[in-house]
Amino acid sequence: MTVTVRRPLGAARRMAGALDDRAPTAWWLRPAVAIGVPTAAFGVHALLYGRWIIDDAGITFAYARSVATGAGPVLQPGADPVEGFSNPAWLGLLVLGRWLGLFDRGAWFGVPDYVAFPKLLALLLVAGVFACCYAVASAMSRRPVLVATAAGLVTAAVPSFVIWTVSGLENALLALAAAGIAAVLVRAVVAGQLLTPATAVRCGLLAALAALTRPDGLVYAGAFPLAALLLLQRADLGRAVRAAGLSLLVVAVPTGAYLAWRLAVFGEFVPNTAIAKAQGLPGLAAATRPGELLTYVGWPAALLAVAAVGAALTRPGPRRALVALLVPLALAVLAFGVLAPDWMGQLRFATPVWPLGALVGVVAADIAAPLLAARARVVVALLAVGAAAVSGLALVDGARAFRAAPTAPLCLVAQNTGRAVNSYAEVVDVPDPVLAAPDLGGAALVSDLRLVDLVGLADERIARYWAAGDLEGLRTHLLTEVRPTFITLNPDWARMTELLTDRRMFEGYDRIATSPAGVTDWVRSDVLGPGDLSALRARADAALVADEAARRSPRASCGDLLVPSP
User: Fold this and answer.
1) pTM over 0.70
2) CB–CB of 543/486 below 8 Å?
C-alpha cells in the first residue's frame, strides 16, 4: 500500500515560491515569510535567556505602577516626584498594559506578567523591525523576501540585540523607531518623494518617538535633514529647506511638550538619570568606540560588508536609496559612540545598529553581486562562509556566557535587597524604616521600606553629588541627614561611595551579615534593642538560603506578583 503525502510538499513549494520573487504566490505569503521567519528565530534565541529581566527595568516597572494607580511619577507612593526613568514612551506602554490588566496583575498561564508582557511586547516590536526591513528590501531588491529574511536572521543571531530587546527595557521600541525611519527614507527616495511633506512628517514623528524612548534617540531628528542634504539637487534647495524645517518642527512639538511637562513637574531640563550618570561631552574615545561593534560581530564579516557597501555605491541606480539607508545607521553608530560605556555588558546601547547594519550589509551584497564575475562570486562566497563561521563562534560564546551569568537579575535584587530587608524591618522597632541601596528595581516592587537610591537615579540630592563628584558630600548627606535604618552595599558600590572608609559608618552602623557574593547589610546602631542584632543575623541566615537559590537560577522568575508584604 502506497501513501502519498502532498501537504508538506505543497507547503515547501509555496515557501520556495515566496523566496523566488519571480514565482506567482499569494500576496500575503512573501511578507509573512520575510517577517515571520526571523521573528521565529528571534523568539527561539530569546528562550535561551529564560525569564530573566534586568533589575534596571524594575525601576520603570515601579514608576509604571505608581502612574497607573494614580500615585504620580514616583518610585514609591508617597515619595517626592523624581524622574528616575529616561524612557517615557516605554513607560507609557507599561502603564497602558497595567490599565488593560496585562501587566503587574498576576500570571499568564503560569508565567508572571512582569515577564510575559514586556517580552511579548518586545517580540511584537521586533516583528515590526523586520517588517521595516522587508519594506526596505521591497524597494531596493528584486529578491525582497530573500534579502529581508537574511537580514532578519543575521539580526536574530546577535546576542546583544536579543538580550537587550527582551530585558524589560526600551531597546525594542528604539530599534523599531530607527528601522521605521530607514524604511520611510528609502521608499521615499525610490518613489521620488523624499522632499514631500508626508515624508518629512513621518520621519519627524518616528524621530520624536525615538527621542521619547531614550534621550540619545534625539539623534534621529537629524535623519531627514541629513538625507535631504546628502541627496540634494540644486534645483530642490528651497523644497529641501522647507521639508527639513517641517521634519524638525514635527520632532519639536511632542518632545517640547514633554520637556515643558518635565520642567513643570521635576524642575529639570534633563531626566534625573542623566544628572546622576553625569554624561559629559564626548572625548576622543568616542571616535574609537564604534570599533567595539566591529570586534563584537567579527572583523572579517564587517570588512566584507564594508566592501559590499563600497561596491554598491558605484552603481548609480541604487546609490541614492543606499545613501538614505546609511543615514540612520550612521546616526545609530554615532549615538553608541558618544554615550559613556555601559557596565551592563553586551553593548546595551547598540540595539538599533544591529538590524540597520545587517540590512545595509545584505542589501549592499545583493546590489554588488551582479558586478562580480562567476569565479569572483565563488571566492566571495567562500570568504563569506569563513567570516560567518568566525562571527558565529564569537556570538555563540557571548550567548553562552550571558546565559550562564545574566546581568543583575530583577528577582535576585527583589530577594536580597527587597524581601530580605523586609524581614529585618520586622525585628527593629522603627515606625518608618528607610533602606539605602544601589540596586533598587526589584526592591522598589517588593519593599516595605522607604528607599534611598545610592546610585542617584531616583534621588535628586544624591544625583547631584554624583554629578559633582562630591563623595564626601554624598556620605555626609547619607550618614548625617538621611540616616537610613538599613544600608545594603555590594563590593563595587562600597568602593565607589567610599562608605567603608568613613569612620561615621562604623561608629553609627553595625554589620548584620555579608553574603558569599560580598553583599553586606548594615543596621543603624541606635535602633537596636537587646538581642536585636542576633535576631537580625538569624534572619540574614534564613535570607541567605533564598539568596543562594536566586543566584543558582538567574533566569527564573520569583512569584506571580511582585508587591510589598501585605
Assistant:
1) yes
2) no
